[in-house]
# Entry
Amino acid sequence: MLARLSVLMFLQYSVPGVVLPLYSMRLDALGFSPWQIALCSATHGVASILAPLMGQLADRWLAAQKCLAVCGVLAALDLAWLLVARDFWSMLLATQLFWLLAVPMMMLGTAITFTHLEHPEAQFGFARLWGTIGWMATPWILFGVEAVTGGKGSAGDTLILAGMAMSLVLTAYTFTLPDTPPRHTSVSWLAPAEAVKRLAGVSFFTFAACMAGFCLIQPFAIQGTPLLLNDLLEDEWGARGARVWLPPLLTIAQVSEITCLALLPAFLNRLGQRGSMLLGLATWCLILGMLSMGGKVWLVLLSLGLNGPVITGFLVVGQVYLNSRAHGDLKASAQSLMFSIQGTGLVCGHLLFGALRAETPPGGLDGELPGVFAFGAGLAFALLAILWAGFRPDRDALQDD
# Structure
């Protein structure tokens, strides 16, 4: 079962993995303004806010694997639209529809995995690392194609075509998954509301505030790091060298993430949920502080290498925390709450990043982005203090008992 669920993680993360890493680069190449890039990027957050609707559907009305199959086939069709979109409104609508399908895909796959793992805290890290491998697989395939063809063609178009193929493979794979039916006998028919009621407490609300704050800052890296690294690589290696090497260099973050996910049981055994999440946020402060020091290729690459403790320690352990607090009939809704919390932060964060870039005096990305990263580092330090003061999951577990 663990192997089957690991394949599911690989496929579900490979689809958004073809869009997100180079998305801001694609829009920048089309001549979009900072505000237009911010609005298009914020569609990810809008879709995440609406994730509880899919959690309600999977927990109360339709089997989770069937919901996942529908999302997969529709995502493939939408990626065809995204492939040909060139003007702002077409890109905005195509991207919004994509995330309205991709976010539920990730949420449903996670809920299915937690439902069928015998020991989630010990096994989820291994299954989830295959999601990260899926995220980075297509950029490496692209690197091989670019190396063979001499860097001709559009990297973004090649990735989107790969995403269409992976969406259809995911759809076919859902027919092999174990049944995860809705629970019709639950106390409450409105699953997200029941999930909030059961999770309510100081630790949960602290976690929710810090998760929203983290996602407020995350767009600084999502939009800013590819733009900054591409600008620096073009200065050193030229436009062709940057186009060929940018996708695989960005996967340094995923290599670090895979290592940390493999060590997730050790993280939880040695540090617990609270300690692991504090480590993740502390590392996030360090990353943003490094990026604020200015444009040096080695510094950006080092910041990518520190991504693992952030994703594993904060985001993935956050999923484990929610799963440990949710009952069997609310697995999808508990995970959808996390996506909704993240979405609120992402929408505000993408717009904030665009506003900060628009207000920064022109002078090239090397001079524009470090100040924005410094602002983010200050916010991350404040979140670290809030999490340290208010997040005590062990105490909440004792109260539940």
Remarks:
- DSSP finds 18 helices and no strands in the chain.
